[in-house]
Amino acid sequence: MNRRILVTGLAIILGALMMVNAEGIAKEKVLVIGDYSPVTTLDPAASLISQNIMMARNLFQGLLRYKFNSTELEGDLAKSWTVSKDGMVYTFKLRDNINFHKGFGKVNAHDVKFSFERVMDPETRSPMRSELVSVKEMKVIDEFTVEISLKERDAVFLQKCARPRPLAIVSKKAVEKHGKDFARNPIGSGPFVFQSMSREQIVLTANQGYWEGPPKVDKVIYKTIPDMDTLIMVMEKGEIHTTQILPREKVILDRLKAAGCKVEPLNRGAWHHLKLNPDFKPFADVRVRRAIAHAIDRDEIIQHVLSGTAEKLNTLVPKGYFGHTEEGLRRYAYDPKKAKELLAEAGYPNGFEVTHDTFTSPSYLPVATAIQGQLEKVGIKLNLVVTDQPTWMKKVTSATTQMTLYLPVRVPDADIPLTNFFHSAGFPPGANVMRYNKLDREIDEARRELDPTKRKEMYHAIQKRLMEDLPAIPLFMMQYPTPYRSSVIGGMPEMDPVWGFDFYPIHFVEKK
């Protein structure tokens, strides 16, 4: 009798525990993101590819950040800041109630100083180092006040204080503890906390102590799904909630809509340009570079490859960026006859062979394939080398690629792309594959100019010179049709000047 009561009691208790566990799982709000490429590092100082940047912006904070759906800055770790009259000294007052993850203490001015100096240190080999060339020194005034002195005035310095690039604020103690392993043991103060990492997936959990309150989702799982067809299929089935990049074919977008997904355009200010390495002899001749520009039919690519989700760009400063202009610049209209004439003048009447490095992104490979076919018509044979994204990026940052497409997103001011891609400060491990340095002085002078009208005039002159020299070939401004399940609301912006998106404002529609 007692044994029967005991067994019955245990069954009731076990059943109750199972119900609690089941309810707990049901109530856990998990955002699942799919992407074709793995996250390779969680160290913001090394986060150059889009997947890494998306993780960094959710794990870490900056002094400043961009408001949701805007390019307007607001305080993040900084509650206030002042700028000296001569524009040479910036003083930031930090919030005193923000803690690093996993018990690494309060965020303080020493961490800010350390984070800046870490990116600026040549030994770190940060690809974002070029964006901090104007910084002279960092000074800790007190625990929550840091002063940054510049070598020269910098009209866009505040934008360079926004997370996650060129830097995010890391825990000095955590970096010193983990050393090189910090990339797999990231400690930030952002709304999400690192839990685990493998090549297949990243798991983040909600920071319950986040200064603005806990996120509305409990967990984020980033899944790597290398095959694009599989990625689309799992999106249709509802196994993932969203993805950053997908093919632009209308039939695929229609399939996702029919499966209950919303597909909205996202403007990142992203632009495609073609990088040409002058170490490959033909590309050292401007006539060859101009011939390639004339041989590319951008209208055809926009219509037949990108389904109208791009717009022609005729300068090396993107549209929507401060200082952009196309007025009075040399143009390179589609003209294969002109391309052949220029190649002959340069000593290549029969063309040449060149290796074009690319990877499996639907924003890269289809465009590279189209350019391959177009250049073949003027005698240039492109040998496409298709790898994964991390392998491709190593070729870019080591300048070992002969030719490649590049699709960046940057702070929307001419100084950033000009410094990154056409200034000696952007030489490898930066992304100045061309090692172009003929306009260093002019780019530096424009950065120092605080009068917006004068800066625009200076950028106009710089762009005129660039389109004559043509160290790279501008192609398109790119739009991003972004799919997400209809249950996801609150966090998908119409525009964002950083790769990825913030997970913090996302929440799910409650089922009735």
Keywords:
single chain; 512 residues; alpha+beta; D-Maltodextrin-Binding Protein, domain 2; Dipeptide-binding Protein, domain 3; 2 domains; 6-stranded mixed β-sheet; 5-stranded mixed β-sheet; 14 helices; 19 strands; 31% helix; globular
Topology:
Layout: H1 2-27, E1 30-35, H2 50-59, E2 64-66, E3 73-75, E4 78-83, E5 89-94, H3 109-120, E6 135-142, E7 145-150, H4 172-178, E8 192-197, E9 201-206, E10 219-224, H5 228-237, E11 242-243, H6 250-258, E12 261-276, H7 286-295, H8 298-304, E13 310-312, H9 336-345, E14 352-359, H10 365-376, E15 380-387, H11 389-397, E16 403-406, H12 415-422, H13 440-448, H14 452-469, E17 472-485, E18 488-489, E19 507-508
Parallel strand pairs: 1-10, 1-11, 14-15, 14-16
Antiparallel strand pairs: 2-3, 4-5, 5-7, 6-7, 8-9, 9-10, 12-16, 12-17, 13-17, 18-19
Helix pairs in contact: 7-9, 12-13, 13-14
